[in-house]
Write a structure and sequence with these properties.
The chain is α+β, with helices and mostly antiparallel strands. Helices cover 29% and strands 22% of the residues. The chain has 6 helices and 7 strands. The two termini are 20 Å apart. It binds zinc ion. Belongs to the polypeptide deformylase family.
Length: 217
């Protein structure tokens, strides 16, 4: 298993728009295994390809812990998964979304707890999101499926990860008057330069995914 280096703001590759995946190769699925391991290693609820410098349209999520916690009560029927024939299937995690499309969003909400692995140590500000989301995507084999979510955490996560695929990040969603870009970058630098973090990163031996060649790029 390899772990990939998660790029931190303001890395230029975080701004690059992803292009669709056309080649659902074995190499892609091996990549996804490492990509998912990277999400777990850094305790993310989701991770999008541009965050490791891969300008393609896919992300992974795992809501299991959140669904089981009290903070975001998983009311019945507020997270439904459907196969390509529109037949409801059980939700299993981690869940891979390739070439996703958010097709329906409604019921605007404001949240102030949104985090991002590309913004370690940065404070969070209000973001405007939608509570109800319908997302259509393909799995790691290219099979179509869809999700209907009215679960706040899951819906916010989908919008957040989908934004990454278009190079959109948290500060773009924040009130411009509520923060200074330099402060965010300083907080991130402070995190990166912390001796404990440096030691940890050295031990993890993370790989720069964007410096490698893959057949699905
Ligand atoms: Zn993020």
């Amino acid at each position: 298993m390899s772990l990939f280096k998660v790029l931190h703001y303001p890395h230029v590759l975080l701004r690059k728009k992803g292009t669709p995946i056309a080649n659902f190769s074995e190499e892609f699925r091996v990549f996804l295994k490492n990509f998912i391991a990277t999400m777990y290693e850094f305790d993310g609820g989701g991770l999008a390809a541009p965050q490791v410098g891969i300008s393609k349209r896919f992300f992974v999520v795992d809501f299991k812990a959140v669904f089981e916690s009290d903070r975001f009560e998983n009311e019945e029927n507020n997270f439904k998964v459907f196969d390509k024939n529109n037949k409801e299937i059980p939700a299993t995690f981690p869940m891979v979304f390739v070439n996703p499309e958010l097709i329906k969003m409604s019921n605007s909400v404001k949240v102030n707890w949104e985090g991002c692995l590309s913004f370690p140590n940065a404070e969070s500000h209000d973001t405007e999101r939608f509570l109800n989301v319908e997302i259509h995507a393909q799995n790691e084999f290219g099979e179509k499926f869809s999700v209907k979510s009215s679960h706040l955490y899951a819906s916010v996560c989908f919008q957040h990860e989908n934004d990454h695929l278009d190079g959109i990040m948290l500060p773009d969603k924040w009130n411009k008057k509520s923060f200074f870009d330099e402060d965010i970058i300083a907080d991130i630098k402070e995190f990166e330069n912390d001796p404990k973090e440096r030691k940890r990163m050295k031990k993890l031996k993370v790989i720069d995914a964007h410096k490698l060649k893959f057949d699905f790029l």
